[in-house]
Amino acid sequence: MDSTWSVLVALTFGILLGAGFTVVLHMAERRGQSAARVVAPTIPDGVDQVLDVLESAGVVLDPSNNVLRASPGALAMGLVRNQMLAHAELVDLVSAVRRTGEPVALEIELPRGPFGDATMQLQVRVARLGTRFVLLLADDRTEAHRLDEVRRDFIANISHELKTPIASVSLLAEAIDQAADEPEQVRRFADRLGVESTRLAHITGEVIELSRLQARDALRRDELVQVDRVVAAAVDQNRVVAAAKGVDVAVRAKSRAEVYGDEALLVVALHNLISNAIAYSSEGGRVGVGVIVDDDAVEISIADQGIGIAPEDLDRVFERFYRVDQARSRNTGGSGLGLSIVKHTVQNHGGDVRVWSRPGRGSTFTIRLPLAERPIAREAADAAPPASEAPAPVAQDTKTRIAAVLPAAPSRGDRE
Fold first, then answer.
1. What architecture (CATH level 2) is domain 220-383+393-416?
2. Which region holds residue 46: left if phi is over 0, alpha if psi is between -120 and 50, else beta?
C-alpha cells in the first residue's frame, strides 16, 4: 500500500512539474513573439504607394540606416548600393535629421557613379517618417545647371565647324554656274557638292546629338538595359562595312549584365567605337569586342593591335572636334565628335571611358558602367543580411581580364 501511494505521489508531482514547464515555455514564447513584433520594422501604411507615384527618387531607411524601400529612380541614380546609402554625404544628412528631428532640404553635388569624374546636382530632402524611420527624396537638377553651358557650346561648335563645308558648298555652286557649258565639269563639281552636303548633314546631326546628351540626363527613363543586347546591336550595325573591308569583328559577350539607362544611346556610343575600329583597320584585320563583369561594374572593351596613339594625343582624343590626323579623319568621313559622344553618353550613365595605347602595339577603349542594383523585395527587405556579410568579389588585373576575353585586333591609326 505504501509503495503504491509513493508511486501515485511521484506520478502526480511529475505531471504538475511538466505542466509548469509547459506554461513557462508558452509564456516565454509569447514574450519572444511580442518582442519580435516590437523590434521588427514596420513601414507606415501607404509609403510604398507614395514612392511608386513620386517623380522624386525615394529611399526609406530603418534605425540602422539599412534601406527598406528604394524607388527605381533612386536605384538608377546610384543612391543605393548593397541595401545601404552609397554616399557618405547622404548618410550625414540622415544622421543630422535623426539627431535634431528637423527636416533638411539642400542641393548637393555627388559622383554620378562609383568611378569616373562625372557628377550630378541633386536637390535632397530628408525628414523623419514616424518615430523610427527616415525618408530621403532626391531630384536631379543637373540638366538645369548644364543648360546655359550647353547653349554656349552649341553656338560655338556650329560656328567653328560648319565654316569649311559651307564655304565649299558656296564655291562649288559658283563653279557649277561658271561651267554650265561643260557637262564633265558640272558632273565633277556636282559629285563633290554631294560629298560636302553629306558631310555637312553628318556634322550637324552629331553636333545636335552631342548637345542633346549634354543637355539631359540619359537615366531619366530608368529602364533596365541588357548589356549583351547593346553589344549585339552595335556590332550588327557595323557588319556590312566590316564585310566590305574584310574586317572580322570577333565578339565575346555573355555577361547577362544589366545597367540602368537609355539603350539607344548606349548602342550609339558603342557603335562609334566599333565604327572607328573598322575604319582604321587594315583590310583582312580583326576587331575584338569583349564584355566582363568585375565587382559592381561591367566593362565593354574594343581592342586592336594597330600602330597606337601618341602619348601627347591620349589626353585629347575625347575632346569635341579633336582629330589625331586631320586629313585622314576627314577622308574617312569623321567629324571629330564620335568619341566626345561616347564620353558624354557613358558619363550620363554614371560610368567612365578609358583608352590604353602604346605606339606600335595598339589600343584598347574600355567603357565601364555600374551594374544595376536589383530592386529590394518588399517582403524580404527586413530579412536581408547586412552588406558587411556579403562575400567579397575577387578582383582581376585589368590586363589579364582584357587578354582573357578579347581576340587580337588590327591596326588603327587614329581615333576621331
1. 2-Layer Sandwich (3.30)
2. left
Helix (H, G, I), strand (E, B) or coil at 67: strand
Q: Is 323 helix (H, G, I), strand (E, B) or coil?
A: coil
Fold of 47-140: Beta-Lactamase (3.30.450)
Are 217 and 140 within 8 A, CB to CB?
Answer: yes
* Phi, psi (degrees; rounded to nearest 5) at 250: -95, 130
- Assess contact for 411 and 281: CB atoms under 8 A: yes
Convert the pLDDT of each residue in 259-271 to its tens digit.
998 898 899 899 9
Instruction: Give the span between the Cα atoms of 25 and 325, in whole angstroms.
Output: 84
The long-range contacts involving 205-212, CB below 8 angstroms and separated by at least 24 positions, are 206/335, 206/337, 206/338, 206/341, 207/154, 207/157, 207/158, 207/161, 207/337, 209/268, 209/337, 209/341, 210/157, 210/320, 210/337, 210/340, 210/341, 210/344, 211/150, 211/153, 211/154, 211/157
pTM assigned to the model:
0.54
Domain made up of 142-216: CATH architecture: Orthogonal Bundle (1.10)
Torsion of CA 248, 252, 256, 258, to 10 degrees: -60
Which residues in the chain come in under a pLDDT of 50? 1, 5, 7-9, 11, 21, 23-25, 28, 30-40, 217-218, 326-331, 385-414
Instruction: Name which of 141, 140, 116, 136 is nearest 126 in CA terms.
Output: 136
Give how far the C-alpha of residue 293 lies from the chain's centroid of Cα atoms, to the nearest Å: 13
Q: Give the pLDDT confidence of 76-96 residue by residue, as tens digits.
A: 888 999 899 999 999 999 999
Name the strand (E) or helix (H) holding 141.
Answer: none
Q: All 3 cell numbers of residue 265?
A: 544611346
- Domain residue ranges in the chain: 47-140, 142-216, 220-383+393-416
Which phi and psi (to 5°) does residue 278 adopt? -70, -45
SS3 of residue 369 by DSSP: strand
What are 172's three cell numbers?
562649288
